[in-house]
Amino acid sequence: MKSSIHPACGTIVLLTDEYVDYRKGLVDSVAERLVEYGYGTLCIAGQQLGIASVCNSIYSLANRLEIKGVICLSGTLGQRLKDDELREFLASFPVPMVSLGLQVEGFDSVMVNDATGMTKLMQHLLSHRDCRRLAFIRGFAGDPYSLHRENIFRTMLKQHGHVVDEELMIEGNFDAFDTYRAVSALLRLRPDVDTFVAANDIMALSAARAVMVAGFVIPEDIAITGFDDTQDATRNSPAISTVRQPFDELVRVSVSQLLDRIADSDQDVPTQSVKGVSHQWVDSEFIPRASTQSKVIRAVRLQLSDQASISAWLHSAMTGLPTPETLDLEKLCTALWETMDTGSLAVSECIEGMLERGSGYHNNHWWNNVCDRIETLTIALSAQESSAQASMRILFALAKARERIWALSVEREYQVRRQQGLRAAMQLRMSSCSDQAGLLETMSWWMQALEPARLFLVRYCNAGTQPDTRATLVHSYLGGLVSSSESAEFPISQLLPDEHLSELARRTFVLNPIYAGNQQFGYLLIDPTGIEHLDLNSAANSIGNAMRNHFNIGKLEYQTERLTAANQRLQKLAHFDSLTNLPNRGHFQSELDKLCMKNTPLALMFMDLDGFKFVNDSAGHDAGDQLLQQVAQRLRDSVAKMSDGQGRLARLGGDEFTLILIGHENIDRVIEMAEQLLLELARPYLIDSLTHQISVSIGCALFPGHADSSRQLIKNADVAMYYAKTHGKNSVACFPLPSAPPNITLLHSRAS
Questions:
Q1: CB-side exposure of 584: number of CA atoms within 13 Å?
Q2: Domain 111-246+280-300 class?
Q3: Which of 99, 468, 516, 723 has the lowest tally of Cβ within 10 angstroms?
Q4: What pLDDT, on a 0 to 100 scale, did the predictor assign at position 674?
Q5: How far apart are CA 415 and CA 146, in angstroms?
C-alpha cells in the first residue's frame, strides 16, 4: 500500500546520484521553485546507475510513496547506462516524469544546448584570436558531455581549415591533478601550443596553473577556456573565459513541463506516450573573459558614448545568470555611467548599497561576473586621460566589492572546512562503534555540532541488499533537540513514523541510503537548509559501517549462542541415550573409571529386562520404545527416592541398564534396593491401550570388595546378572556367586 506524505499539492521526487556540487545547486533550485507552487520535494540520492552499487535499489522507494511526479537528473544519474537501460529505469515510475540533462526517447526531456555556447567559444578563438595550435582537455572516457564538446571542437577546427592534431587531445578526467600532469607533459613536448580548451572549468583552472608554472603568460602566450561558469573561473587571475549553462532557465522549463504533465494527469488527459513527448533545449552562452582577450581588442579604446552602450556591455556578460531579487543591474548601469560621465561617487554609493542588501555568499557568483565586466570597462577607460578620476573611483568601488566577496568566500570556506572536519571526526568515532548506544551517542554529538534544520536516522528491521518493508526511527534532531528513543515499527512507505509525518510536508528532504558493502541498513533523511557543504554519501557510509559492526557482532553473538546450543546437543548425543535420556554406555564407562581410579566405594547393578523381546516382536518396535521409556522413568523415580542422590543410572543399549550406587558398601542394603527395583519394574505397563508385563534380572558387585578395577567390577556384575537370568529371572544375584554355573567360562568370555 502506498503512503502519502500530504504537502499542499503533493510530493515531487528528485532523483540524483549524489547531493553535492552542481547537483546540489540544481536540486535546491528545483525544490525552491516547486515549493512556490505548493509542492513538497524529496531528493533521493542513490549513486550512479550502472556501477553495481547496492544503493541503486533505494530509487524503488519512490514507487512505494504516493507522489505526483519525478524529475530525474539523468545527466548524472544515468550517463553510464545504455539508452534502452535508462528508458527502462524511467519507465519503472508510473507517474509524470521529466528527464533533466539527457534526452531520453519516450520521455519529456530538458537539456542544455552545449552547441550554441561551444560554437561561439570556438569562433572567438579561431576568428578573433587567430589561434592555430589548439589542445582539447577531455573529461572521463565515454562521458557524453565531454564527447559532445570535443565533437564541436573538432568540427569547428575543420570548418576553419585546421587539421585536428591528435597529439593535442589529452586526458584530464574532470580532475585537477590529472589535468595538471597532462598539460605539463604536453607543454614539455609541444611548447608551441597557443590554446587549451577544457571540457569544464575545473580542468581549465588546473591548466592555467600548469601554463603559468611552465613560464607562459595568459592570454599573451596561451589562451585558456573552460565550461560551466563556476565561481572559481571568475576569481582566477586572469578570469577564465567559459560557457555558461543557464541552470535557472533549465530548472524553470523542467518544473513547468512536469507541472503541465501533472495537470494533464489530474484531468485524465492522455499520458505523454499518447499525447507526445517534449524535448526542449536551453541554449548555453559563451562568456569571454581576460583569459582569451585578443591583443587587438585590448589595444582598441571602447566606444563608451552613452548609458545604453554601458548597459548593453554589462548585460552581455550576465546572459543566463539571473539577477538576485535584492539587486538591480540596471540601477548599477545608471550609476556607472554617471561616474564615468561626471566623475561622481555614484557607482561607489550604488555598489555599497547593493552589497548591504544582497551580499550573501549565494550571490557571490553574480558579483564576480559584474566586477570582472566592470573591470574590463575600467581598463579601457583608464586609457582616456580625461577619464582618469572616474576610472580611479570605479576601481575603488570594485576593490570594496571584491573585499566583501572575499570575506564571504573566506567565511564559507571556514564553514565548509568546519563541516568537513566534523564529518571526519564523526567518521573516526563511528569506526570504533560496536553497539547501537555508541552509534547514537556519536550521532548526537555530530548533530549538535552540525546543527541541521531537521534530521532523521531510520533503520530497517532487516538488513539486506534491498530496502526492507518495515523500519524504526532510531535517532532524530528537531528544533535543536536530540532524541535517541527508538520508535515503534512503521512501513517505509511512510518514510517516518506517524508522530513525525507532518515534517514531510515542509520544505525539502534529502534521502541517502545507509549502507556498507552489499548491505543496506536504513536511510538518513536530512533537511539541507543552511548547510553549505555536506558530503552526505560519505557520512551515510560511515554510519553504515558502524551499523554493520553492530549487526555483525549481534550476528556473531547469535551464531555463538546457536553454536553453544548445538555443542550442548552434540555433547548430549555423545553421552546420553536419545530414547530414554539416560547416560549412555560411554558416559557410564567414563564415570565408573573415574570413581574406581579414586578408590571410591560403590556398588554396581547390571539389569537386563525379562520378556522385552516378546513385547518388541509382538507389539512392534514403537511399543518397545515406549516400554523402554517407561522403564527408564520408573528407574529414575525409584533411584531418586532410595539413593539420596548418589545413584547414577545408564542405559548400555537394547534392554540393558546399569546403576552405580556411590558410597554403598553394605551388600544387604544393596540387595534390598535391588529387590525394590524388581517390584517396581514388575508392575504392569499400559501402552497404546494394551497392558504388558515384564520383569528384570539384576546382578550386583561391590568395589573394592569384589574387584580391584572398573573392568573387573563390570565383569563381576555382569556374571551375577547372567546367573540371575539363568536361575529363574525376576531375581537378584550378588557376586561372589553361591556356586559357579557350568558355563561360567563362556560367561566370562562374553563379558570380556
A1: 12
A2: alpha beta
A3: 468
A4: 95
A5: 32
